[in-house]
Amino acid sequence: MDKDSLKPLIETIIFAADHPISFEKLMNVLEGEKRDEARLALNELINEYAASSRGIIIEEVAGGYQIRTRPEFAPWLRRLFKIGFQKLSKASMETLAMIAYKQPITRMEIEELRGVDSGGVLKTLMDRNLIKIIGRKELPGRPVVYGTTKEFLEVFDLKDLACLPTLKEIITAQEEEIAGETTEDNSAGGDSVQAQGRGDDTGGAGHGQPSGGDGTGDKG
């Protein structure tokens, strides 16, 4: 097939897939087609979606390609499915970050870093399918080690773990957030923070998705 004939076929395959589909798997389905033609068709399809005013786009996430809703429409989708923000607690986000950056990592190593028991937090993250047991460490007792899942990449809109922000980027973002809050507080008055009752669990990540993921950025 030529590029123009491949585009609607690739679009159909991506739409029908339950999870992000990798280019290699796509080529397995398109058995006999030229890789260069398929890659060109896929890239044009992605660009056409991005340039259009439609409510869906094709994104590369979790090692594959997926049709996803635009993040700006998330509030209406939450209303449709009657779901709210499903935020992770500060402890869960802290633990998830440790696992993401230091995987494979044992529970003991996590608790040494956090200084508290982490059994409940690990269970929560596993229940939400953000982490999983990926093996055992060659130590006495052979403790299990944890790593992140493909769902973690989907929720936080990451192509792969290499796309995680660096420590420098995180610090810069935190400094900018603090500077913005300081400016807002000064303009609102000295008692504004106390009056507003700001929490410390508001940090989210991902393309239009709340912390912990409510699915509103995914294929819907």
Summarize the structure.
The protein is mainly alpha-helical and 220 residues long. The chain is 50% helix and 11% strand.
3D structure, described in words:
The chain has ten helices and five strands. The chain is mainly alpha-helical and 220 residues long. Mean pLDDT is 78; it is low at 189-220. The protein has two domains: 3-69, Orthogonal Bundle (Arc Repressor Mutant, subunit A); 86-214, Orthogonal Bundle (Arc Repressor Mutant, subunit A), CATH 1.10.10. It has helices at residues 3-16, 23-29, 35-51, 74-81, 90-102, 107-114, 119-127, 150-155, 167-188, 192-196, and strands at residues 56-61, 64-69, 105-106, 131-136, 144-148. Helices cover 50% and strands 11% of the residues.
Average pLDDT confidence is 78
Structural class determined from secondary elements: mainly alpha
Number of strands: 5
Main beta sheet, described? 3 strands, antiparallel
Approximate shape? globular
What key phrases describe this protein's structure?
Arc Repressor Mutant, subunit A, two-stranded antiparallel sheet, mainly alpha, three-stranded antiparallel sheet, disordered C terminus, globular, 50% helix
Draw up the topology in text:
Blueprint: H1 3-16, H2 23-29, H3 35-51, E1 56-61, E2 64-69, H4 74-81, H5 90-102, E3 105-106, H6 107-114, H7 119-127, E4 131-136, E5 144-148, H8 150-155, H9 167-188, H10 192-196
Antiparallel strand pairs: 1-2, 3-5, 4-5
